[in-house]
Amino acid sequence: MTTQTGAALSPAAKDADKAPKTVKGSPKWGDLVLRIVAGLVLLYLFLPIFVIILFSFNDPKGKFNYSWQGFTLKNWLDPFKYPPLTDALLLSINVAAVSTVIALVLGSLVAVALVRQRFRGSQTVDTFLVLPLTAPEVVMGASLLVLFLDLGWATGYVTILLAHIAFEVSFIAMTVRARMRGFDWTLEDASMDLGANPTRTFFKVTLPLIVPGIIAAGMLSFALSLDDFIITYFVSGSSVTYPLYVNASVKASVPPQINVLATAILLISLLLLGVGTLYRRKRLDV
Amino acid sequence: MAGVAASSRQRSKIAPYLMIAPALIYLAIFFVWPVISLAMTSLSTAGGSVFLPTMEFGWKFSNYSEAFSKYEDQILRSFGYAIVATLVCLLLAYPLAYVIAFKAGRYKNLILGLVILPFFVTFLIRTIAWKTILADDGWVVSALDSVGLLPSDGRLLSTSWAVIGGLIYNWIIFMILPLYVSLEKIDPRLIEATKDLYSSNTRSFTKVIMPLSMPGVFAGSLLVFIPAAGDFINASYLGSTQTTMIGNVIQQQFLVVKDYPAAAALSMVLMVIILVGVLAYTRALGTEDLV
C-alpha cells in the first residue's frame, strides 16, 4: 500500500521524503554481523518485557511473583483486585497530567523566547536551564526535601507536583527548543507581507510550526513523571504513586496484577504508536 | 538564527524577559533555593533524635571529611559502576543506532518504536523482571552453569555485575536515541563521497561517520552517566550490602537515619563531582546540545 506509493514516486520526490539512507558497497559479512548485533541488542531490550508479560499469567503460590508456578488467567480477569494499586496508578496519571500542563506553559515560553528573540543574557538562561538536568535525581529529591522541611511544609500531593514540575521544565524547554531550531521563520514575515496581522500570523503560521514540538515535549514529560521514583520517594509523604506502590510491594508482596497493569499500559502505548504511524502514513499518502 | 533580526522589529524589548520569567522564577524557588538549603544543611550540626531531628548551621566542614572517609567505598563504586555502564551502553547502542539510521530502510520508524516501547513499563517493574531473570534458580544461572561460565560463588544476583547490568539496561535508551539522531543527520552523500575517493569502509567510518556522531556520543554518555552515578534502585534490588552506591547512603541517611547534615554533605559531593566531570567532558568533547 504505502510502500507501493513510495516506490512509484520519482527519485527526486523520494529524496525530499527522507528516503531511506543506504550505504553503498559495504561488504556482506560485516553488514550481516552488524545486523545480528543490532538484533541481539533489540532482543536484550525486550527480555525483561517478555518476563513481565509472562508473569502476568503466573499463579504465584506465596506473596512474591518471582518464580513460575503455573498458568492462569485470573489476574487478567481481575486487574483492579487491589484498590491501593489502582489508586496509586490513578494518582500517578493525575500528577503526570497536571504537572505536564503547568511545565509545558513554563518550558515552552522559555524555548520560544530563546529561539525567536535575541536578548541580553540568553546564553546564561541557556546554561541555567541545563543545570537541573545535570543534577542527579537523588540530589534533586534530597534538596527539595530539605527545602520543604525548612519551610515546614507537609509533604504530599502538592510537593510531588511541585517537584515534578521542577524537573520537567528543563526537559520541555530543551526539547521544544531543539525542535524549533532550523525552522524557516521567514514564513512569519511572508505571512505579514501578505497582509495577515500579528495575531492571525501567530495562529496560522507560528503555532502550527511549534505545536508538534510541544506535543512531543509533553509526551516525554508525561512519561518521565509517570516513571519517576527517586525524586517522588523523597517528597511524597504519605501519598503513594504507582512507582512508590511497586517499590513498597517488593518488600511486602508482589501481586501479579502489577504485571497485568504494566502489560496493559504497554499494549495501550503500542496501540497509540500504531495509530500514530498509520495516521502519519495516511497524511503522507495524500 | 536567520530571521531573528528581521522579525524582532515588531516585538517589544521586555517581551522575552516576560516569557522567560515564570520558568526562571520557578526554577529559582524549586531548584536553586533547595540546592542552597542543601549546601547549608551540609555545613550544619545534627542534633535531636530520629523522630525530631534538629540542625544548627555552623560551617561544619568536617561533615565532608567524614563523608569521604566513611563512604569512600560507595563513592568510588558509584563512579566506577557508572563509567562501566556508560561504556557498555555506548558499545551496545552504537551498532543498533547505526543499523536504524542507515540500514533499516522503511522499517526505520517501526524499529525506533520498538526500541522505545520497553521503556513504557515502569523502571522499577523492569528492574524486578531482571531480579527474576538473574535469580539463583533461574534459567540464566543454570545455562551459564552448564557451560561453566558462572562465577565462583554460583550467583548472578547480588553481584556488582547484576547492578551494572541493571544500570545499563535502565538507561541505554538515553544512549540509543541521541546516537540515532546524530547518525541520522549525516548526509549519505558524504559517505558516498568517501567511497568515490576510494576510502575503505573502516576509514570512512573512522574519518567521517564517527566524528559526525560525536554530539550523540557526548549527549548519550552524559544522559547515561549522570542518572547511573546517582541511582540507588539497581543497587538495592539487584545488589547486596557489598554493592551499595552513594545514592543508597543518601537515601538511607535522609529517610531512615535522618542524619540530614551527613546526607546533605554526601549529596553535595555527588553533585559537585558530576558537575566537574561534566564540565571537563564538555571542554574535551563539547557541543552545545545536551538533549
Write up this protein.
The complex is a heterodimer of chains A (286) and B (291). By secondary structure, chain A is an all-alpha fold. Helices cover 75% and strands 0% of the residues of chain A. The N terminus of chain B is likely disordered. In chain B, strand 1 and strand 2 form a beta hairpin. Chain B is built from 15 helices and two strands. Classes of the chains: A mainly alpha (286), B mainly alpha (291). Chains A and B meet through helix 3, helix 5, helix 6, helix 7 and helix 8 of A and helix 1, helix 2, helix 4, helix 5 and helix 6 of B.
Secondary structure layout plus pairing:
The complex is a heterodimer of chains A (286) and B (291).
Chain A lengths: L1 H7 L2 H6 L11 H28 L18 H4 L5 H34 L5 H13 L2 H15 L5 H24 L5 H8 L4 H30 L2 H6 L6 H10 L5 H29 L1
Helix pairs in contact in A: 3-13, 5-8, 5-10, 5-12, 6-8, 8-10, 9-10
Chain B lengths: L3 H4 L7 H28 L1 E5 L4 E5 L4 H9 L1 H32 L4 H9 L6 H12 L4 H8 L13 H12 L1 H12 L3 H9 L4 H12 L1 H17 L2 H6 L7 H12 L2 H26 L6
Antiparallel strand pairs in B: 1-2
Helix pairs in contact in B: 2-15, 3-15, 4-8, 4-9, 4-12, 9-12, 10-11, 12-15, 14-15
Helix share bin of chain A: over 70%
Mean pLDDT of chain B: 85
Quick check: average pLDDT of chain A? 83
Number of contiguous helices of chain A: 13
> Outline of chain A, from the CA principal axes?
globular
Could you give the distance between the termini of chain A?
Answer: 13 Å
Strand order of the largest sheet of chain B: 1-2
Structural class of chain B: mainly alpha
